[in-house]
Amino acid sequence: MIVLVVGENREYLCHPGDEIGTDLGILIVPEDVKIGDTIETHLGKKFTVMEPRVTDLFHHLERTGAPILPRDVGLIIGMAGIGSNDRILDVGTGTGILSICLGKVGASVITYEKNDKFFEVAQSNIKKARVEERVEVRGRDVIEDLDILNDFSVITLDMKDAELVVKHARKILRTGGILVAYSPFIESAKKVVECAKEVGLSDVKTMDTVQREMEFGARGTRPQTRGVGHSGYLTFARKYV
């Protein structure tokens, strides 16, 4: 069991029995703690025990680089129509955030991460998120296994040279299956699009994932001016026949 304790504009991801040193005092999480309980530090500062959401895990799990953002995960799940009956091939596990989110919606996921350090962190994060029964992480290059991968309903790619996998997408995907590729730059997205069309995938389209948070003030309402909220490009394609 993993819990989120929140109080005084601070939050900590922890396990029952953990002892957390904070600037508000030492917080001991009881072994029999329950969701909704209120616990206190030795200085009397109160914290509420909550069940962590996937978005909480995004902020608190160990990172190995720049993980895919929750807003992009939402677009992937929504645009690809991902649900509990899906069998997903995820390439480029990284921190494991996307695989964890896919597991949380009930999908069965096989994810590949060839970087040894990233693989170890992803394994740990997947276990902490309690989705290890639905998410299998393989610590090797997916290219080694392309000949044996098939009958997936969705492929998600967050990797350099994603077109190397896109070339095999028709064999990997079942009829009606969806390809999703995240690209940090237009040039890499273009390669994915060109390759997807070359191998005969349909409905190929790329979206610029931009979101802007709104500011509400005495003078009026407008989008925040601190950055444009751009993270990357998402390309979608489908296998019809």
In short:
With 241 residues, the chain is α/β, with parallel strands linked by helices. It has helices at 54-60, 70-80, 97-104, 116-128, 163-166, 169-172, 186-198; strands at residues 3-7, 10-14, 19-22, 25-28, 38-40, 46-50, 87-91, 108-112, 135-138, 152-157, 173-183, 202-210, 214-216, 221-223, 230-238.
Walk me through what this model shows.
This protein is α/β, with parallel strands linked by helices and 241 residues long. The protein folds into two domains: 3-52, Vcp-like ATPase, Chain A, domain 2; 57-238, Vaccinia Virus protein VP39 (Rossmann fold, 3-Layer(aba) Sandwich), CATH 3.40.50.150. The chain has seven helices and 15 strands. It has helices at 54-60, 70-80, 97-104, 116-128, 163-166, 169-172, 186-198, and strands spanning 3-7, 10-14, 19-22, 25-28, 38-40, 46-50, 87-91, 108-112, 135-138, 152-157, 173-183, 202-210, 214-216, 221-223, 230-238. The strands form four sheets. A seven-stranded mixed beta sheet has the order 9-8-7-10-11-15-12, with helices on both faces. Strand 8 (108-112), helix 4 and strand 9 form a beta-alpha-beta unit. The model has no long low-confidence stretch (mean pLDDT 93).
Task: Outline the secondary-structure elements.
Elements: E1 3-7, E2 10-14, E3 19-22, E4 25-28, E5 38-40, E6 46-50, H1 54-60, H2 70-80, E7 87-91, H3 97-104, E8 108-112, H4 116-128, E9 135-138, E10 152-157, H5 163-166, H6 169-172, E11 173-183, H7 186-198, E12 202-210, E13 214-216, E14 221-223, E15 230-238
Parallel strand pairs: 7-8, 7-10, 8-9, 10-11
Antiparallel strand pairs: 1-2, 1-6, 3-4, 5-6, 11-15, 12-15, 13-14
